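Encode chain A's predicted structure.
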Amino acid sequence: MRKRKDSFLFGAELQPTIYKYQPAAHTNVRSYLNDRLSLGGALSFTSKKYSENFGYSADRTRSNHIILNVLAQNDFINTEKVVLSTYLSTGLYFLVLSIQMKKQPKPPTMTLMEFG
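Encoded structure for chain A:
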């Protein structure tokens, strides 16, 4: 009987954002079902501030990027010296654009004075 092997990976990766690639925090968790096949999931997150308002009435904006993936890996060759695998990753990409609204100026107040 084979011992259960789990894999926990934490690190950084480059993730696409609105204009360019941005460093992102990344975690990957997999569990081997047998000597060759593993299943798992991955999560990546990055956030970027922009001075641009993207057409909204905003002083500044922030984009939050989240990637959730389901992973499957098949190790054709897995020796101490050589590992040859196929890797399937499919998932969802979420983009949340947060805006900070411009402060509206207060309308002028009018004070009535009565003389009498």
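The chain is about 0% helix and 65% strand.
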